[in-house]
Structure formats: structure tokens, C-alpha cells
């Protein structure tokens, strides 16, 4: 099985030799470059909330460890070497840096519950957060929503009385119900076996929320998509998700876009 950074055409994210000292595997350096690229892609798409929200990736060969952003860094500033390595118990394993405790609760909870997940994306986009406050949420009214509708789940906003451990466990249970999550009163979350899959899901989940916001502002009842069409579309998208290159075309295009910005995240 190919790693999430490889396909028939070679590495999805060009890398430079790592220079962080001995003890780091080539696989860890590659996933660092990929995750730093993902942060830059989110910055390009406007999926940022200054220093808040977070993306993470499990380290190949180290299933109990993942990488997350250094708390306080803007998405546009993140580099491969600046990512923080933590384990699912909350221990920082890299020199320097600190993670957002809320971020650890979210990502650690998912990784504990979903051993098949290698990437978690969490955003506070305006359309995503806007839809998260609505009781009904997303309706099957657009092609965009059909890309995620069959794997959509909702997670209720955590109680202030809940401990971090309890909230992490609760989110993990929700993520066992689907790979595209609307966090009630909060934002969006997607997961994937690869970074590319998580990005593809977030792209369509956020687009679906944008369309829903527009539709709700028009003062007219939207045309619903027929149930047989919804079911047929779901079968097709399930087949696409099973392919090894799921999300790869979007990823390659996004890498070209961030390369054009002229700043390097692979340092």
C-alpha cells in the first residue's frame, strides 16, 4: 500500500532533505512537509481564524503520535520544522513549541477512536460556523452537499461541565458515524486516511455550507434533490472514495497554487 505522500507519479509534495537532527525518519519529514502544505492551502482558500483552529496528521509508523501547529503561528507562517509533535497522551515530543489545548482534545479524541484516520482538519469558516448554529443544518439541495451527505454527522456542543477527556471521547464517538462532521455551534471537521482525502471532504463540506447560506437568504424554498438521485450519487461517491487517488487531483492543483505564492513551507 502506498503512503499518503506517494502515488504512481511520485511524491505529492516535493520535499527537501530534513535537517532537524538525527532520529527523525524520512516518513516523518515527508508528512511534516505535507501538513505544512495543507496549512498553506487552507490559508489560500481563506479557511483560517487567525491563530485559531488546527489541522493535524498522524506520523507514519508511529500511530500514537501526530503533528499539529505551534500555537500562535498563522497558517501562512507554518513550516515543516515548526510543527509540534505530540502523543495521544498530550506529551510534547519535539523541542520547543506548544499546542492549543482545545486542539489536542479534538484531534487526540479522533485519533484514539479512529485508527484508520491519518489526518484531521478543523475549521471555523463563516459559512461552516453559520450552518453549525442551525437546528436543521445542511439539506440535500446541491451537488456539493451530495459529495458528503452520506457520511455527514453532527456533534453537539460540549458542556462546560465536561472534562477534556470526556469531550475528546464524545467527539471520537461522533467521528465513528461519519467522516464529515458539523460541530454544532462551532464549525466543521473532516477526517481522512490521507491528507488529500481530508482536504477533498473539507472543500465540499465548506462549499455545501456556502450554498446553504445563500439559499437561506433568498426567501424562497429551494428545490430538493430527489431521494433516488441522492442514493445513486452516494453510491458513485463511495466508489470514488475507495480509489487510491481520492483527493489527489485537488491536492496537486492546490500545491501549484501555493507554489505560485513564492514562499517555501518545507523548511
**pLDDT averaged over residues:** 90
Largest sheet strand order: 5-4-3-6-9-8-7
Number of strands: 9
How would a textbook summarize the main sheet?
A: 7 strands, mixed
Number of helices: 8
The SS-based structural class is alpha+beta
Cα(first) to Cα(last) distance is: 28 Å
Radius of gyration: 18 Å
Task: Give the proportion of residues in helices.
Answer: 25-40%
Poorly predicted ranges (pLDDT <50, ≥5 residues)? 1-10
What proportion strand?
A: 5-15%
Form type: globular
Note the run of SSEs as H and E.
Answer: EEHEEEHEHHEHEEHHH
Structure description:
With 267 residues, the chain is of the alpha+beta class. The protein has helices spanning 26-45, 101-113, 126-132, 143-146, 164-175, 195-216, 227-241, 248-259, and strands spanning 6-7, 10-11, 54-59, 62-68, 84-87, 119-123, 152-155, 180-183, 187-192. Strands 5-4-3-6-9-8-7 form a 7-stranded mixed sheet, with helices on both faces. The longest helix has 22 residues, at 195-216.
Short description:
This protein has helices spanning 26-45, 101-113, 126-132, 143-146, 164-175, 195-216, 227-241, 248-259; strands at 6-7, 10-11, 54-59, 62-68, 84-87, 119-123, 152-155, 180-183, 187-192. By secondary structure, it is of the alpha+beta class. The strands form 2 sheets. It has a 7-stranded mixed beta sheet, sandwiched between helices. Strands 1-2 form a two-stranded antiparallel ribbon.
Amino acid at each position: 500500500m502506498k503512503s499518503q505522500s506517494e502515488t504512481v507519479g511520485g511524491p505529492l509534495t516535493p520535499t527537501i532533505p530534513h535537517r532537524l537532527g538525527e532520529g527523525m525518519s524520512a516518513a516523518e519529514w515527508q508528512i511534516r512537509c505535507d501538513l505544512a502544505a495543507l496549512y498553506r492551502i487552507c490559508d489560500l482558500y481563506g479557511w483560517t481564524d487567525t491563530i485559531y483552529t488546527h489541522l493535524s496528521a498522524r506520523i507514519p509508523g508511529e500511530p500514537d503520535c501526530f503533528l499539529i501547529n505551534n500555537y500562535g503561528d498563522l497558517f501562512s507562517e507554518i513550516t515543516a520544522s515548526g510543527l509540534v509533535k505530540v502523543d495521544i497522551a498530550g506529551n510534547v515530543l519535539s523541542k520547543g513549541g506548544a499546542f492549543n489545548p482545545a486542539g489536542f482534545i479534538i484531534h487526540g479524541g479522533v485519533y484514539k477512536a479512529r485508527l484508520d484516520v491519518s489526518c484531521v482538519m478543523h475549521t471555523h469558516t463563516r459559512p461552516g460556523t453559520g450552518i453549525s448554529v442551525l437546528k436543521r443544518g445542511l439539506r440535500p439541495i446541491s451537488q456539493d452537499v451530495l459529495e458528503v451527505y452520506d457520511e455527514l454527522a453532527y456533534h453537539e456542543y460540549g458542556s462546560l461541565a465536561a472534562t477534556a477527556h470526556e469531550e475528546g471521547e464524545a467527539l471520537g464517538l461522533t467521528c465513528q458515524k461519519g467522516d464529515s462532521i458539523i460541530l454544532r455551534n462551532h464549525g466543521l471537521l473532516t477526517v481522512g486516511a490521507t491528507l488529500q482525502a481530508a482536504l477533498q471532504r473539507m472543500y465540499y463540506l465548506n462549499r455545501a455550507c456556502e450554498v446553504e447560506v445563500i439559499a437561506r437568504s433568498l426567501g424562497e424554498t429551494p428545490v430538493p434533490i430527489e431521494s433516488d438521485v441522492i442514493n445513486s450519487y452516494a453510491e458513485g461517491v463511495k466508489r470514488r472514495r475507495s480509489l487510491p487517488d481520492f483527493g489527489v487531483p485537488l491536492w496537486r492543483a492546490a500545491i501549484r497554487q501555493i507554489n505560485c505564492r513564492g514562499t517555501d513551507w518545507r523548511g
